[in-house]
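Worked example 2:
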Amino acid sequence: MNAPPKTFHVKSFGCQMNVYDGDRMGELMAAQGLTATDDQYAADLVILNTCHIREKATEKVYSDIGRLRKHGDNPMIAVAGCVAQAEGEEIVRRAKVDVVVGPQAYHNLPDLVARASRGEAALDTDMPVDMKFGHLPARRRVPPSAFLTVQEGCDKFCTYCVVPYTRGAEVSRPSAAIVDEAKALVDAGAKEITLLGQNVNAWEDEGPQGRLALHDLIATLDRIEGLARIRYTTSHPNDMADGLIAAHRDVAKLMPFLHLPVQAGSDRVLRAMNRSHSRDSYLRLLDRVRAARPDIALSGDFIVGFPGETEADFAQTLSLVDAVGYAQAYSFKYSPRPGTPAATMADQVPPDVMDDRLQRLQAALNRDQAAFNAATVGRRCDVLLERKGKLEGQLIGKSPWLQSVHLVGDAAIGDLVEVEIVEAGANSVMGERVGPTQP
């Protein structure tokens, strides 16, 4: 039996949705009267909000638990998120943690912590039909740019991906609940909201006039007073509807940025991945997006070394990168996830070959990101200031194209200011203020 915790620390790994989930778990514990601390080793309760996408994710969790046991003051440890969902009772058996809770059940965290304090079993990896969001506390103070989950789960079953198994089937939150939370975020200080989902553009709901899609939701959020910017991620090419493309042209608050993962440039590899698009359909889709919003910045995801990928297949990925000119992108070596079809495929690519291909791919992506940043020098745009920089008086914000903008001047976190981009680096740009603070 443990004494009920008085302080807590949440450590989140992985995607933006995990950041959102971690924030909500923190709000849950604060609503129970616990105090947050930045020092994980001083906390009575440490919540490890895990991600299962990256290589060796499970072993990293066990390493973190070991460090907490060694350096912490015997904290209560809760493992949450996708590793918790995948491992379940194995974590309890192997690491003797106090609480295990999956990503669809974390609204039960206060009850699980109370049970663990009484020495009872505290494991919940259910995926209930009743979504967790209605059980979460009201939002309080939030950053200028806030995340808002609108959709979870995936029905695509890409052969390399664990999301359908750890997050479940695609489920969309009701539009009314999303709008209410968006208004609460704005009331709490947000000026920009990023709509989140594993396949966010698969979001749907039923309205009085019939089926609503993501572009309808964006149009509704566009009418919220005080909300200046709207973004969304992550999208699937198969769900990039005409209405959503048109929204990039018609909705001023929708930022000119699109993260649209392609994963590979070879049709043969895309079929093996069970991706529902081809190289050509993806490129034609981007042409339509650019026709609607010519200044849009494009982002993507890439996997190198997928089983059976040849040098010729990889060359197709490099040529696709050359054709698109991404403003930024994420790239990873393939790593097998237990239980996925790709994990048992023949022709696994040797690690040294994957290393070489990743270095060549990242060189091309870094080249294009630097070129995109350089092309924005001289542009004027609004920048939402989000945090302090390392230099005295420096603030860092985001351009409409999701660039990090460094600014020195008379401004404050949360301000939306007009700047001219005056210098470009590989990963960020410098701006000079040229206009007043926007409302």
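Residues 102 and 219 are 33 Å apart (CA to CA). The chain has 13 helices and 21 strands.
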